[in-house]
Amino acid sequence: MASIDIDHVAVKAVTVRPKTRRRISPGLWFVLPCVLFTLTFFILPLILTAWMSLHNWPLLGKTSFIGLDNYIALTKDAQFWTALGFTTLYTVIITPVIFGLAFVLALLVNLPLRGIGFFRTAFFLPVVIGLGTSSLLWVWMLNDRVGIIDGVLMALGIVREPIIWLGDANTALFVIIVSVVWKVVGFTMVLLLAGIQAIPSDLYEQAMVDGANFLTRFTRIILPLLRRTIALALVLSVIGSFLAFDQFYIMTRGGPRNSTISVVYWIFNNGFNAFKMGYASALSIVLLVILVALSAFQLFVLRDDTTQ
Amino acid sequence: MTTKSLNNPRKNGRILGQTSAYVLCLIFAFLFLAPIIWSVITSFKPAAEALAAPPTGLPSRISLDNYLKLDRYGAGIAQYVFNSVVVAFITVIGSVLLSTLGGFGFARFNFRGKNPLFLLILSSLMIPFQSILTPLFVILTGIHLQNTLFGLALVYITFQLPFGVFVMRNTFAAIPREIEEAALLDGCTVLTLLWRVMIVLARPGIVTVGLYAFLNSWNEFLAALIFMSKEDRFTLPILLANVHSGRFGTVDWGALQAGVTITIVPCIVVFVLLQRYYIQGLTSGSVK
Questions:
Q1: Which domain range does residue B139 map to?
Q2: pLDDT digits over B242-264, tens only?
Q3: CATH of domain A73-301
Q4: What is the total count of domains within chain B?
Q5: pTM for the full model?
Q6: Closest CB to B110 among A27, A111, A155
Q7: Residues 121-140, chain A: which have Cβ within 8 Å of B?
Q8: What is the value of ipTM here, to two decimals?
């Protein structure tokens, strides 16, 4: 009896022996490629941006360490502050437009109508074509000579002369916003739709039985339960708007008279037209800080108050 | 029965409501689809009609003038389509490969540093690539991949990783462990397990990752603009932006719309065929 016990204990000791510390878990091998890519093309560049921002870094020629000079120059850079103001204005205007329309579309597409799936696809379709391509499409439609918009307006007698949409700062901003909303609203619509469809239907039906009209149902039930979805969609939308580049580069080249230069456009100009890469890096760091602060602020404001 | 329903106010109200909903949907559908349809129609107009000011209506006949004119720009349209296809192809393969391996590793294994590493990959979602353009340029030049399709694709693959790893990890985590254990008991090595069993079960996740990788790399503008300075390396969006900016001479709007159509059609086709994967990808991220 005693020997069997000892053997039993010995067998157990063999199988339960923990892995020696030197053996690398296979899991690590699987994730290593992604980690390497992320380190090389995200983390390393991030550190390098900060490093470059402390230098004068031309494309060709020697780089020289200049400390915080780039940041000091930044504070005096009128075009940067104009671009920041413009980008903020653009974001502040376009965000409610996107969300208002996305809500309407989401509620519309949520209706139990036959063939509603076709409409959902139709509303979403512009999302997949790319912002650069969409901008090229719209800049053509808005052209005062060959564009369809002026063509139709004139044919209907609404205007007598073609409107040069992109020639005036205010109308340019207006039509750019229209074109971007056209392209992106489907995305927010789908996010909101997913959130709406996740709301338990008995909550909804109970409210209808209780006689609540649509507006009450919307504000009292849908909106609060959609808090997380709205927070996510909002953060994505605001970040996207703040980083806008394609539409301004393609449709107006930052004009007329530099009135539509966004922050990223200004970084692009400095870094890859003027090749002042050190200065552009300083601008990039400032952009990064603004974005992180903006996202943190939004998530804080929209955090789930479980005390509700 | 019929007269009763005709006089039924609630049913009439519902029919009215449904009709107005449909009308609203039709109006919006027109607004969303018309620009795309108009661009495609114009691309098939004869050259003179496409350039008419003010614009003409429907084409008098179907013509490939604009497509032929598009071919005269730079190195010819085939080169630019090739560039976009190559970049997209490498991006899709690379993204799927790395995301699947990574997602599998994170879902099925425990190892030291697993959570920090996962957070590391996800945190790069918070780093907008627009703020790391200058160092990316320097790094790519340093490893001699500046101005190469492969270098651009590497950058694109990295952009896809946070989302891709997230989706694949969730996909693998949802596969019941019993299947794995059964396969391992049958004598599978871990790699065979991954290749034969898990890949098949994880196909929806893989399709989702591949789809997003394709769309993002095909349509991307800013990085391609910065990293591709040699004309014959342009991807389609960059070619078209240059056609528009007059780099190749005065703007030929017809040719431009032909180019826009060529760029749009693959996206639409791919999306319509794989719609549910796209939506699934969005919602899996949002309803977390």
A1: 69-286
A2: 999 888 878 899 999 999 999 99
A3: 1.10.3720.10
A4: 2
A5: 0.88
A6: A27
A7: 121-123, 125-126, 128-133, 136-140
A8: 0.89
